[in-house]
Write a structure and sequence with these properties.
By secondary structure, this protein is an alpha/beta fold. It has one domain: SGNH hydrolase (Rossmann fold), CATH 3.40.50.1110. It is 34% helix and 7% strand. Helix 3 crosses helix 14, helix 4 packs across helix 5 and helix 8 runs parallel beside helix 11. The chain is globular and about 60 Å long. The relative contact order is 0.17. GO terms for molecular function: hydrolase activity, acting on ester bonds. Belongs to the 'GDSL' lipolytic enzyme family. This is (rape) hypothetical protein. Its main location: secreted.
Length: 454
């Protein structure tokens, strides 16, 4: 009986492999410049009433058409079925203790942090919205193919797998530590007074557009993440003496938003989505940023005043994309595809700063950070740039990290943990740069400066 039960437990993982292989046969990455239909209307900042929040929405479950592997710094279909693989089993090293902020060069040393005991941080709270790059468990209990609540995910995290798509800490975890905050709980797990220090609403496969990620079935799109934040405001008010009492805490808190990768990888570039037949690259970038601005304005109307908006990384250089080529080089087609989005987000930041009173938005340039690591790997102690630490096939990116797969033992030397997401080492490098870096990585000011604003 025990033998058959173990076989049953592996069924979801085996199903995921079949789905990824079928997805590789059916979906070929094509970057197409389509006819230029009428572009979306100009960016308009929408003021929405701050009436009583609606009840939280249920997670959207959509029929699966042809799910790819889990996503995020990036993911994509493979262009052809992989040849028979010779998977090299490497010795599994013992889990190491969680890393703290990595020391690496920045343009100017940050001033000393104020408090870091988990109770008295630089800011009262941190609220997080995004996708699998910063999801810390919100997909664990929903019917979704985008999950990471199994070993070896979390191999270096104190407590094991949590739903983080990483071997350890995410970039947002590193930022919370630098702010002197405890690790921010997932919305699905936050209880009691925990909500007063912030909540993480991020969901793997989520996007700016509501249809994005539907091939993974369950996920929590950006608009529903905002509805969940409204529920948190009610919870905070019940513990802090009402809406007036929490208004100052929310206004002084930080809002971290990292969205957009899935709108390309699990929408625009997917053959079963109509968007690339409706919009060319520039039009699609305009559409995304217009919707992005609307969502951010909703958060402003709910009380947010200090916003950190992360741009997209070099999606053409992740293992899942590299595995589709034959020359081992990044896909410049994919990298160029997302340029209009990053450019428009920077413009959006300036517009929102001008149009929303007392608001301060900053932009974090993820592309610049990753380009610097790729150009100077020795400075950062990263030696492997083109393959995942955990994965199967070419570049260890054709099939992403599977349950109980043996990962590489030298994880701190890898840029990527799996086919799509950075290692803890790289996440903490980026957290430190975003927190105290110069204007090449944080514009117009960095996170530490934003947190210090009154």
């Amino acid at each position: 009986m025990a033998f058959h039960f173990r076989r049953l437990c592996y069924f979801p993982a085996l199903l995921l492999v079949v789905i990824q292989l079928l997805h590789g046969v059916c979906g070929q990455l094509v970057v197409v410049e389509e006819p230029t239909y009428a572009p979306p209307p100009p960016l308009v900042v929408i003021e929405e009433p701050t009436s009583s929040p609606p009840p939280p929405l249920d997670v959207v479950n959509e029929p699966i058409s042809a799910p790819p592997p889990p996503l995020d710094v990036v993911n994509e279909p493979i262009s052809a079925p992989p040849p028979p693989l010779n998977v090299v089993e490497e010795p599994l090293s013992a889990p190491r203790p969680p890393l703290h902020v990595v020391e690496e060069p920045i343009s100017a040393p940050p001033p000393p942090l104020v408090k870091q005991d988990g109770n008295d941080g630089i800011v009262p709270a941190l609220f997080v919205f995004g996708d699998s790059l910063i999801d810390n468990g919100n997909n664990n209990n929903i019917p979704s193919f985008a999950k990471a609540n199994y070993f070896p995910y979390g191999i270096d995290f104190n407590g094991g797998p949590t739903g983080r798509f990483c071997n350890g800490l995410t970039m947002v975890d590193g930022i919370a530590q630098l702010l002197g905050l405890p690790l921010i709980p997932a919305y699905s797990e936050a209880i009691g007074d925990q909500v007063l220090r912030g909540v993480n609403y991020a969901s793997a496969a989520a996007g700016i557009l509501p249809d994005t990620g539907g091939n993974f079935m369950g996920r929590i799109p950006f608009d529903q993440q905002i509805h969940n934040f409204q529920t948190t405001l009610d919870q905070m008010a019940s513990k802090s003496g009402g809406p007036v009492a929490i208004a100052d805490s929310v206004a002084r808190g930080l809002f971290f938003i990292g969205m957009g990768s899935n709108d390309y990888l699990n929408n625009y570039l997917m053959p079963n989505f109509p968007t690339r037949n409706q919009f060319n690259a520039h039009q699609f970038g305009d559409l995304l940023v217009q919707q992005y601005a609307n969502h951010l304005t909703r958060l402003y109307n709910l009380g947010g005043r200090k916003f950190i908006v992360a741009g997209l990384g070099r999606m053409g250089c992740i293992p899942s994309i590299l595995a589709q080529g034959t020359d081992g080089k990044c896909s410049e087609e994919v990298n160029q595809l997302v340029l209009p989005f990053n450019t428009n987000v920077k413009t959006m930041i300036s517009n929102l700063n001008q149009n929303l009173p007392a608001a301060k938005f900053i932009y974090i340039d993820i592309t610049h950070m990753l380009e610097d690591i790729i150009a100077n790997p020795a400075i950062y102690g990263v030696t492997t740039l083109d393959k995942g630490c955990c994965g199967i096939g070419r570049n260890r990116g054709q099939i992403t990290c599977l349950p109980f797969e043996t990962p590489c033992p030298n994880r701190d030397q890898y840029l990527f943990w799996d086919a799509f997401h950075p290692t803890e080492k790289v996440n903490l490098i980026m957290a430190k740069k975003a927190f105290a870096g110069d204007r090449t990585v944080a514009f117009p000011i960095n996170i530490q400066e934003l947190a210090s604003l009154s």
